[in-house]
Amino acid sequence: MKLLLANPRCYCAGVDRAIQIVELALKQFGAPVYVRKEIVHNRHVVGWLRERGAVFVDELGEVPEGALVVFSAHGVGPSVNQEAERRALRVIDATCPLVSKVHAEVERFVDEGYHILLIGHAGHEEVEGTMGHSPDHTTLIENVDHARTTPIPEHHKLMVLTQTTLSMDDTQHVVDALRDRFAHLELPPADDICYATQNRQNAVKAMCDSGIGLLLVVGSENSSNAARLAEIGAVRGIPSHLINSHDDVNPSWLGGVVRVGVTGGASTPSSVVHDVVARLEKLGVSDVEPCVTAKESTVFQLPMALQR
Fold it and tell me: Could you report the per-residue pLDDT of 246-285, keeping only the tens digit for each?
């Protein structure tokens, strides 16, 4: 049995930056460092940081006044920043710069008189943060059915923005459905779907096209980008499983499989993927081959408070 290992896979620049921020804050300021929501959507990362002294909370009301708090990579709305200021919290913002770009677009386009149609998943922290920048001028569109039926205010200027971790294929279908309703629909000059999301999806597509009989995506169940990677294999008729670790590999999945593809979502540590590969080698994989579709060199700067 041959294993194709996707490249790029695992941490993107935004995730790497967010994790570094928590690690450096713990080193520089000492424990506890409070983190609003999961810093990234991965169970292993959250567990490791908790062991080092990070305290994860759902809301700022759980943080003692004057304490240090880190905002997660998914971003927050202005009301969260205002609450932090009222409670005199020391804030380090780990929002991914590409998410911050979408936030800035919301404010800019609303100022220019647009109503925003945001393509994304209800309840996702990134979507909640983005909509928080102008909730009265933003309508959430979750899928093609919503695009066709969701009541949208009559407005002469409509702009589409998207959650960064969505599939390009899914987004295009939703945009097409919106265009059927609104011929004057506009898209921003630059695509909101981040480079890392697209690169990881392209690598999975290449593995699928190479004839794999099984796709394993390593990532947590609440990771949007990891879930999308598994969907790419499933829609192509390839048995695809989102797994959290090597313990989740079911040997029965490998029956009759000659080539298996493995990747990790953008918030998955490489070490967890390596453990999955080692498990598959014990189950019959005799050859591991990289499937390289892109090279990534993007690095995001750390906040000024941590750069030293």
Answer: 999 999 999 999 999 999 999 999 999 999 999 999 999 9
Amino acid type, 20: Q
Domains located in the chain, CATH noted: 2-11+194-292 (3.40.1010.20), 13-96 (3.40.50.11270), 98-192 (3.40.1010.20)
Of 38, 125, 126, 142, which residue is the catalytic one?
Answer: 126
* Predicted structure pTM score: 0.93
* Beta pairing, strands 138-141 & 158-162: unpaired
**Which ranges of the chain does DSSP label H, i.e. alpha helix?**
13-29, 43-52, 78-86, 97-111, 125-131, 144-149, 168-181, 195-209, 224-235, 270-282
> Are 266 and 197 contacting, i.e. CB atoms less than 8 angstroms apart?
yes
Determine if the peptide bond prior to 32 is cis (ω within 30°).
yes
Q: Is 154 a catalytic residue?
A: no
Where on the phi/psi map is residue 55: left (φ > 0), alpha (ψ -120 to 50), or beta?
beta
* C-beta neighbour count of 218 within 10 angstroms: 32
State the CB neighbour count (10 A cutoff) for residue 253.
Answer: 16
179 pLDDT higher than 80: yes
> 10 Å Cβ neighbour count for 66?
9
Q: How far apart are CA 81 and CA 194, in angstroms?
A: 24
